[in-house]
Amino acid sequence: MCVNKEPLGKQAWLLLAVDGLFVLSGALSGTFLNIYLWRSRSDYAMIGWFTAAQQAALGISFWIGGRWVKGRGKMNALRVGIALSGLFYLLVLRLGPRSVDYIWPLGALLGAALGLFWLSFNVVYFEITGPGNRDRFNGWTGLLGSLTGIVGPWTSGALISAMKGERGYRVVFLASLSIYGAAAVLSLALRRRKTAGSYRWLEPVRRLRVSGQWRCMAGALFFQGLREGVFSFLVGLLVYLATREENRLGQFTLMTSAIALVSYGAAGRWLTPRRRLPGMLAGAVLLTAVTLPLLAGTRYSTLLLFGAGTALFLPLYMLPMVSSSFDLMGDSEDSVGKRVELIVLRELSLMAGRLTGTLLFVSLLPLGPKLRLFTLLLLGLGAAPFGSWFLLRRSAPALSAAGKPKPRSLRGYLRNGRER
Fold first, then answer.
1. What's the domain count of the chain?
2. Which of 5, 181, 184, 244 has the fewest CB atoms within 10 Å, i.e. is most exposed?
């Protein structure tokens, strides 16, 4: 029997709407933020350190913000995250090209904003979904992300190109600021929920010291972050360098997001808890394979082939990762009571991977020709999903959630994946 058919409630749809607005604002401006900085100073290391500052601040804000979320209410933290995101773009509008002189504080501000928002979002998401509708919610999240990826970057690229640079960027940043305001207003309709108990600062460390499912999950999340850290900024930058046109980057994102729109919808329907591990394995193989065209060079055509393949196969990997980690938070009454700390552990694991990948990128810059180096780096990091799959299969929370004994062989995983 399929366990993925429970409907979503009103609060889940409201949370999806807030998420959609927040992601749309990021899609409008975030896609071109690194390009804006690059136009002011063409420095790969500067882009890398800006990303590293975001990632470090994001993880720290999760850990420190956990006390606030558990003690005073997660809705305030969510709204502060939205407000800080707006403040970031206000500062960028104020500083203009001089933003490159404030990479560390600006990166830290954006990271803190994202950390507070996503910490609160993830806690509420856990509370209003369960194993019966979590894959469905994640499918809708992917669909909304794809829709905003279609509308946002294409619109921004067209505006920036039509307005000849600086003026277009200012219009786009101002539009993002307005959408953040709309998201803050809509968030007022989300119901307040109390989180019982005191915040345990060292709970993530305690979980990692004990051999078990969370140690395996943390490792799997590290590999996910290892891939995300560099891919999140380098692919878009390479597309811009290959074309030197913002509207071509917008078209690239439009096409890849349109593919992801379909693939997330299909994956959300097909993936059940029993199919997560075989789905992840297929996703890992295919995501690694689509990096191979980059060996022919980082031309627009090869980047587009890589982007389309990634959009098509990424849901097979991402949806099981998200659903399995949150299912593991609900496997006992003790885990449910410590959901805030476990969400912090989840994000710290992702941050460790993202930061490691970004620091690897910066450290390799002095070694050789940049584009060839970037190709090899993307090929290596593109295989990181195998690490996630290997570690996740040892704890197999997806299969245990479905009440199915964990098979010991690849044949067993594939056989279970074919069963309803």
1. 1
2. 244
